[in-house]
Amino acid sequence: AQSVAQPEDQVNVAEGNPLTVKCTYSVSGNPYLFWYVQYPNRGLQFLLKYITGDNLVKGSYGFEAEFNKSQTSFHLKKPSALVSDSALYFCAVRDMWKDGANNLFFGTGTRLTVIP
Amino acid sequence: DTEVTQTPKHLVMGMTNKKSLKCEQHMGHRAMYWYKQKAKKPPELMFVYSYEKLSINESVPSRFSPECPNSSLLNLHLHALQPEDSALYLCASSQDGLGGADTQYFGPGTRLTVL
């Protein structure tokens, strides 16, 4: 089965500083990796995904992620954090049920707090 | 437009009630999903409809019953729920549910409380 891990429950960063939210993956075959953000009492918003190709993926709201095959990592980054980026961030990997149905396996989430 | 709508936003029900959650998308997607998210936990997939074919997470109890009347609508019928079923229920949709590149777009969720 495919899985992802987010080693940090909480990340604090000062406004204007670069931010990194970490994700490592364990897959058999080629990974399909995703980042989502969740604001309080809301659904998940898609940020970006890696399928194949360029290791640096650019997404919504100025976020980007770097796919690193040798380190099995897919860290989310932003050059300059905003207070409004404070939210819960989930890394996810495409998994598959026995009948072939797509399943998104989510990491445990990282709460990002941007300090003014 | 990547909007998925869910109704109601909040639902409180007793253990003997029957209720339904509704989800709708108008993006022409052919796959729709129900997820359950407990507080401070990641979402867990419960059901998938892809081209109206149902796939089930075998760990989901039978008191949850999905229905897909057409490719734009998804319901989740609830009957005889337990307090531990209290959670945020998320609906999502994607192009076709096939292949790994399919991006899922989520609705805002229904906050369910079972008394």
General description of the model:
The complex is a heterodimer of chains A (116) and B (115). Chain A is mainly β and 116 residues long. Chain A is built from no helices and 12 strands. In chain A, the strands form 3 sheets. In chain A, strands 2, 5, 6, 10, 11 and 12 form a 6-stranded mixed β-sheet that branches. In chain A, a hairpin with a 5-residue loop joins strand 7 and strand 8 (64-68). The radius of gyration of chain A is 14 Å and the shape is globular. The model of chain A has no long low-confidence stretch (mean pLDDT 93). Chain B is built from no helices and 11 strands. In chain B, strands 2, 4, 5, 6, 9, 10 and 11 form a 7-stranded mixed β-sheet that branches. A 4-stranded antiparallel β-sheet of chain B has the order 1-3-8-7, with no helix packed on it. With 115 residues, chain B is mostly beta strands. Chain B has strands spanning 4-7, 10-13, 18-25, 31-37, 44-50, 53-56, 64-70, 73-79, 87-94, 105-106, 110-114. Classes of the chains: A mainly beta (116), B mainly beta (115). The A-B interface holds A 30, 32, 34, 36, 41-46, 49, 51, 90, 94, 97, 99-104, 106-109 and B 2, 4, 6, 31, 40-45, 48, 50, 55, 57, 88, 90, 92, 94, 97-109, 111.
Summarize the structure.
The complex is a heterodimer of chains A (116) and B (115). Chain A has 116 residues and is mainly β. Helix content of chain A is 0%, strand content 53%.
Which key features would you list for this structure?
heterodimer; A: 116 residues; mainly beta; six-stranded mixed beta sheet; four-stranded antiparallel beta sheet; 12 strands; globular; B: 115 residues; seven-stranded mixed beta sheet; 11 strands
Topology of helices and strands:
The complex is a heterodimer of chains A (116) and B (115).
Chain A lengths: L2 E3 L4 E5 L4 E3 L2 E3 L6 E6 L5 E7 L5 E3 L5 E5 L4 E6 L8 E10 L5 E5 L3 E6 L1
Parallel strand pairs in A: 2-12
Antiparallel strand pairs in A: 1-4, 3-9, 5-6, 5-10, 7-8, 8-9, 10-11, 10-12
Chain B lengths: L3 E4 L2 E4 L4 E8 L5 E7 L6 E7 L2 E4 L7 E7 L2 E7 L7 E8 L10 E2 L3 E5 L1
Parallel strand pairs in B: 2-11
Antiparallel strand pairs in B: 1-3, 3-8, 4-5, 4-9, 5-6, 7-8, 9-10, 9-11
